[in-house]
Each structure stands twice: as C-alpha cells, then as structure tokens.
Amino acid sequence: MPVRAVIVDDHPVAREGLKAILTAAGIEVVGEAADGRAALRLLREARPDLAVVDAALPNLSGIGLCRRIRRRLPQVRVVLISMFDEPAWRAEAAAAGAAAYLLKGDDPEGIVDAVLRVAQGELLLEAPEAAQVPLTPREREVVQLIAEGKKLSEIAQLLSRSPATVRAHKASAMRKLAVHSTAELVRAALALGLVRVPEVPHG
Question: E strands, 34-184, where?
C-alpha cells in the first residue's frame, strides 16, 4: 500500500507544490488543509500515515498542531516544513514531537526521502535535552506587547524604558528568530508559543 499523507499549509501554491512532489514519488495525498483546526478534523477523518505541516500556520500554529496530533492521534507521524532554518525552531519542533524538520528550500528529492523515511518509522529530528528559545524575559515581554498591537513608544512608557531600549529588544528578538519584519516577528513568536493572542470577549 502507498504511504498516505495529508498536507497542511495556508498557501495554496505551497500545497500544490508539495502535492506534486509527493504524488510523483508514489505517495498518496489523501487531504489538504489551510490551518491547524481544519487539519485536526481532516486527520481524524482521513487517518493518514503522516502529516506534512507548515510550521507557521495561522490560528493554531504548525508546532501547536504537532503537539495536539502527538496527544490525540499518536499513530500519525508529523513532518514539519518551514522557511526558518534556526536552532530555536528545530528545538521547538523536536519538543513538540515532530519526526522531521525540513526547509521549504530543500530539494524535492530530499523532501521525498525524508517523508518516506518518516513513514517507515525513522526519527530524523532528535529531541534536545532542553528546548529553549533564546529570548530573554524582557524580549518576550516586548514581543508580547507588539503582538497586542502596541506601538514602540507605548511599550516604552508601559515598561518605563527608553524607546531606544525597546527598539534594541525588538531587534534582538528579530535576529534570534531570523525574521525581517514586525509581521514575521509576531507570526514566529506565536508559532513558537512565545506569546499569546489576547482573547476577544464575546457578547
């Protein structure tokens, strides 16, 4: 029987590209999803051998999705695929229980080889002794406030720090997470579980 896979990525072009690569290698793609919550429903229905998941999904991140899959559907192995080639991301992926961490820039043959090996039970991502994302408490605080929509001048007032100091914390966090814009910083921090989105009251 062919390996059965589900693809989870919020970019249609990325999904189509992965589907073409996997299908050409004889892997049966039994479903696609654009976000983590839809993916959980699909995985329960399709029961594939593995899921190829974008690490930085909207709503429920790929790493967060991986954690839930390992708890609820432990028979489904997870291959995380990302554009971030950083130790912090690999550490979080390993801690979440991913079997492999691939890069979107990897050659198609390498992606297929990794997927097939994971389907056969191999673990290509070793769990570190301590998976720590190297942000200081102050950097996390600054990024959290940015995620909440605060301007740097407001953050400086809230933390009783100079705007220059806040900018330095932001720049340091961006460098450590290998991102190049505020939007990427927030998305990466959310995906890694470093910050949380404030809940909107209902009613």
Answer: 50-54, 77-82, 100-103
Per-residue DSSP letter, 127: P
CATH number at residue 24: 3.40.50.2300
In one letter, which amino acid is 124? L
Which residue range(s) make up the domain with 48?
4-119
Choose among 49, 46, 4: nearest CA to 27.
Answer: 4
Q: Identify whether 202 is part of a domain.
A: no
pLDDT under 50: residue ranges of the chain: 129-131, 199-203
Number of domains in the chain: 2
Give the residue among 69, 55, 65, 54 at the shortest CA–CA distance from 17.
54
pTM of the entire structure? 0.69
Residue 198 CA to residue 203 CA, distance in Å, equals 16
Question: What is the C-alpha to C-alpha distance for residues 120 and 199, in angstroms, rounded to an integer?
Answer: 41
Specify whether 103 is located in the same domain as 158: no
Largest Cα separation within the chain, whole Å, is: 62
pLDDT in tens, 105-118: 999 999 999 999 99
